[in-house]
Fold this sequence. Notes:
This protein has helices at 27-34, 38-44, 65-80, 104-112, 128-142, 171-179, 224-229, 241-263, 280-290, 302-305, 312-320; strands at residues 11-19, 25-26, 49-50, 87-94, 118-123, 147-154, 183-190, 199-208, 217-219, 237-239, 272-274, 297-298, 329-336, 341-348. The protein is an alpha/beta fold and 352 residues long. β4 (87-94), α4 (104-112) and β5 form a beta-alpha-beta unit. α1 packs across α2 and α3 (65-80) crosses α4.
Amino acid sequence: MRPPGACPPPVHLLGTGTALPGEPVGNDRLADRLGIPSAWVETFIGTRTRHFAVDLDTGRARWTLEDLCTDAADRALANSGADPSEVGFIVLATATPDALMPSTAALLADRLGIQGAAAYQLQSGCGGAVQAFAVARALLSLGPAGLGLVVGGDVCSKHLDLGQDFRDLPPAALVNYVLFGDGAGAAVVSGRPRPGARAALTHLEHRLAGLGLPPGQRVEWFGAADLRSGTAPRTPVSEDYKAVEQRVPQLARELRDALLTAADWPPETVDYLLPPQLGGRMTERITSELGRGLEWEPVSCVAETGNTGNALVLHQLDRLLPLLTPAQRALVLSVESSKWIRAGFTVEAPDA
Length: 352
């Protein structure tokens, strides 16, 4: 039994993989489709491209979350050199499952040809990938020799009504059409170091930080009875962007300090910063503030992928791992605005 106060064992990253649907959609194309100024998108959000699982012209779904998670998991397994038969569990984080039942996690296991594995699905927002790593760490502590698959993904575009007049939408509603994109990411993990392991997740934090505060974002769910009775929300996705701008930088600072303290790392010993991914413009501001006076190299993807929710941290890790050299360190920060959650972890590359 682990003594009280002992640090939980690290999670070893063996390989990562990502998936994005279709070609990138630039601001000019998106602005033309929505009938809004392209300059507004660039100035207000700062995201240059994003990917959509639905066809912008017809609204027809071209990819499912299951499709994207399968592609990302296949790439993570290939990158790690692991066989699907070695995977003992899958933990999938998403806010936008393809259906309530069966779970996308179970369908993913089926697509990968994995029989007998445990499949867990977490309903969560941007902090979900960190939550999934926390669950994976707990499972690996019971069987450290096995392998697990951590997956995060979202198809946000399924909740957006492409048939309305966007010129009548207030900025608080319009932001959801330009801020978000669709995608998935995956990581193969182990409780013990293996040959070729790329890095280890050490100290991890996932905590609520919005007691008494209203949600910064809501994604609604409603069924046929809600539609018939007229009680279904008129707007399936809503966001208090001003609250996000105000609260996220503060929570990111708190998370940075908490992780540095837990790891007992002097700030100058950190090599890379994986900042919260919101929109291109806000992420730049937060990154500049968090690393002021330090030589932290930022690793960001949101300006090219859009805000892909649960996929973001895994996309950042996929970019980080090829950059790491022996003994280098990274801070991974994520802030979920749904009910204000700060989530992150420290990453260490093995010594040579």
